[in-house]
């Protein structure tokens, strides 16, 4: 009891000393850890370290696997497109082997081959920009010249030198056009 009374006196005099005295008293009451507890904690620590090493190895393996898959995706990104182009190559080769006296059949074969190529391109997100008769759009058209005319509305496309293309709605190449302007 004498110790408790002393602590109460210290607390009433100086709160900081009272806190230190209480800690000292609690430390004195806490028993020393046994060898068995140390062994149990060493085993738990070893288990945690093993788990950590295993997780690091798994993460590293996953990172390497993702890098390999990304590299494969880059290498074969155009596989579907190029596979779809193979019949177009076949058609062109067949056209080249045609006899010169059969010009009309050759032209028809070229039309079919162009249609095949257009289908492959469209299936892969390519859209043709052929603005003949439409209003001039500087986001998709490049004006090569302007001609005065009363037959067409001003700022409309009256001739297309070269078609333009959009890839998934992003301009790949502008259409080269002639634009109408009002006559003087």
Largest sheet: 3 strands, antiparallel
Major sheet: arrangement of strands: 1-4-5
Sheet/helix structural class: alpha+beta
Strand content: 15-25%
Helix count, per DSSP? 5
**Over the alpha carbons, how many angstroms does the gyration radius reach?**
41 Å
Share of helical residues: 55-70%
Head-to-tail CA distance between termini: 117 Å
Average pLDDT for all residues:
85
Instruction: List low-pLDDT spans.
Output: none
The ordered string of helix (H) and strand (E) elements is HHHHHEEEEEE
How many β-strand runs? 6
Principal-axis shape equals elongated
GO molecular function: adenyl-nucleotide exchange factor activity; protein homodimerization activity; protein-folding chaperone binding; unfolded protein binding
Pfam families: GrpE (PF01025)
Coiled coil: 49-79
Region (Disordered): 1-39
Describe this structure in words.
Homodimer. The strands form two sheets. Strands 1-4-5 form a three-stranded antiparallel β-sheet. The protein has a three-stranded mixed β-sheet with strand order 2-6-3, with no helix packed on it. The protein has helices spanning 2-13, 15-29, 35-75, 79-96, 103-123, and strands spanning 126-129, 141-148, 157-162, 164-167, 170-173, 175-181. It has 184 residues and is an alpha+beta fold. Helix content is 58%, strand content 18%. A hairpin with a 2-residue loop joins strand 4 and strand 5 (170-173).
Can you describe this structure in just a few lines?
The protein is of the alpha+beta class and 184 residues long.
